[in-house]
Each structure stands twice: as structure tokens, then as C-alpha cells.
Write a structure and sequence with these properties.
The chain has one domain. About 25% of the residues lie in helices and about 20% in strands. The protein contains nine helices and ten strands.
Length: about 290
């Protein structure tokens, strides 16, 4: 369990706006009730789009997903940490799925069925039909993403810190009725942070790099990764302890006590983050051509 220091740190454990100002308590994650499963979604965790009783739609991952039950804990912890340092991630919720809803069959029944109980939900931007959501943009539109720097330079630092062992997943969205072609980006699919269900940190220089090199065109040195780099380095242990509060024990693979060890490892990893970025810069792929 988190130490008593987490309670004293709760005032500091706030999410950040783009200006770096605290907004809301990091540890408050709403619980919503799933009303309807709308459709299956792509992905090896076999997520479902669900309509919930707060009038929002969520991408729901189930405890019995084919990857690992800890994917749910990873998603919630990573979302909290990302908000703590001001990165653009979707609002998240704990989604309560009733036995009646979980028992409803899907047309593609060959895929693993969901289950009742507490699941992880990542909010869909806007309402289906009102919001255009894509996972790929051509170069000319990618360069015009409103929060390109936060999503990709901040996201790279975050993925290095948390050892995201999957490729960086991003969705781009805008109003379907807008004449403006500028999109915003959200970092999604954090389930492989902390090395999936292993809760370990097998670092590698080329890991965490987004495959589209143009997102790194502005990088000229370590300063290009500010303020996210310094925000991580300046985190206090109490803030990380607060981030693990309220994560459902059943999402932890029978070892909820390991969450505190995970927080401690994240605290220690702050010290090596600059070196990890330099090693990525010097790797054979040379991802930052403007950094001489």
C-alpha cells in the first residue's frame, strides 16, 4: 500500500494544463457504468467501444484480455503520469460492466468475450459521427497538428521513462463539421508501458521512437524536450505514490503490493532519462538530424 507520504503529496499531485498549471486531483478517476457495447475495435487487446452512463463513449479493455490483466493497471497509471507532466491523453475511467451486458454475444464471437466487473476505459474524443478520428495523417496534415510538440517530443520522453515496449500509438481528431483541417492529437494505448505484464524496464536506444521522422524535425538538443524532461526529473516520490492510489487490485495480477515497487523504480529512472535520450540520438537510426 502507498505510504502516508502520498496523502501529504496529494495537493501536489495535480494534472497540468498546457501552461503547466495544476487543474485537478490526479488520483480521482471516475467510475462509470457501461450501458451498451457499440462495436469491437482493432487491437490485440480486443477492446470494445462502449456507451456509458456519463453520456460519453469509451474504448474499454477487459481484465480477461489476451495480453495481460496488468494492461489495465498500466493504462490507468500511465494516463495519470502523463497528465501529471502535462501530456495530451484522453480522460480515463473505471468502467463497471454488468453481468447482463457482458453476456451479450457479438457477431464476431470467435474473439474472446468480455467479462463483468471493473474494466479500464479511455474516452473517445467527442461523439461518434460528430468527431473525425484517425490514426494516420499525411505529412502535410501531420505537420499542422496543433499539439505536435507535446504529443511527440513529450511523448518520446514519457515513453523512455516508462519503458513503453510497444510502438507509440496516437489518434488525431477534429470536428467532422469544421472547415479547419487542423487536428489535435491524443496519446493512447499505454498498456505496454512498464513492459506489459512483466513490470520491468528492458531499455533499448531505439525503443520509443515514432516511425514518422518528421515529428522530430524541430529537435536541436535536450532543451527541445522541455518542459517535460524537467517535469519528470522534478517529480517527488509522494507524487508517484499518489499516482498508484485507487488502482483496482484485481488489475495487478494478484500482486497489488508491487505497485509501490513500480513507483519507486519510476522515481529512480528519472536520473537516467537525459542519458537515455542521448543514446537514442546516437543510435544507428539517427532520429534527430537537427541535433548536431
Amino acid at each position: 500500500m502507498p505510504s502516508q507520504g502520498a496523502a501529504h503529496a496529494s495537493a501536489k499531485s495535480r494534472t497540468l494544463t498546457e501552461a503547466g498549471e495544476p487543474t485537478a486531483d490526479l488520483t480521482v478517476t471516475p467510475t462509470v457504468r457501461a450501458l451498451e457495447f457499440v462495436r469491437r475495435l482493432r487491437g490485440s487487446s480486443q477492446p470494445v467501444l462502449a456507451r456509458c452512463d456519463d453520456e460519453h463513449y469509451y474504448v474499454v479493455k477487459f481484465q480477461n484480455n489476451p495480453q495481460h490483466v496488468r494492461v489495465l493497471a498500466n493504462e490507468l497509471l500511465a494516463a495519470r503520469l502523463a497528465r501529471l507532466i502535462g501530456l495530451p491523453v484522453p480522460p480515463v475511467a473505471i468502467v463497471n460492466v454488468s453481468e447482463q451486458l457482458a453476456a451479450l454475444p457479438f457477431e464476431d464471437s470467435y474473439r474472446q468475450a468480455g467479462m463483468a466487473g471493473l474494466q479500464f476505459g479511455s474516452r473517445l474524443p467527442g461523439l461518434p459521427g460528430d468527431t473525425l478520428v484517425v490514426d494516420f495523417l499525411p505529412d502535410r496534415l501531420l505537420r499542422r497538428v496543433r499539439n505536435l510538440r507535446e504529443a511527440f517530443l513529450g511523448g518520446f520522453v514519457f515513453d523512455k521513462w516508462t519503458c513503453n515496449c510497444d510502438g507509440r500509438q496516437v489518434v488525431f481528431f477534429r470536428s467532422a463539421n469544421s472547415r479547419q483541417l487542423s487536428y489535435s492529437a491524443w496519446l493512447i494505448d499505454q498498456g505496454f508501458c512498464f513492459n506489459d505484464g512483466a513490470w520491468s524496464f528492458p531499455d533499448a536506444p531505439q525503443r520509443s521512437l515514432y516511425p514518422r521522422a518528421l515529428v522530430y524535425e524541430s529537435v536541436s538538443g535536450l532543451s527541445s524536450f522541455e518542459p517535460f524532461l524537467s517535469r519528470i526529473e522534478n517529480l517527488e516520490m509522494g507524487q508517484l505514490e499518489a499516482a498508484i492510489e485507487g488502482i483496482p487490485g484485481q488489475w495487478c495480477g494478484g500482486e497489488p503490493q508491487r505497485l509501490l515497487g513500480l513507483a519507486r523504480e519510476l522515481y529512480d529512472r528519472r536520473k537516467g532519462l537525459r542519458q537515455a535520450i542521448i543514446e537514442a540520438k546516437n543510435s544507428c537510426v539517427r532520429p534527430f538530424p537537427g541535433w548536431k
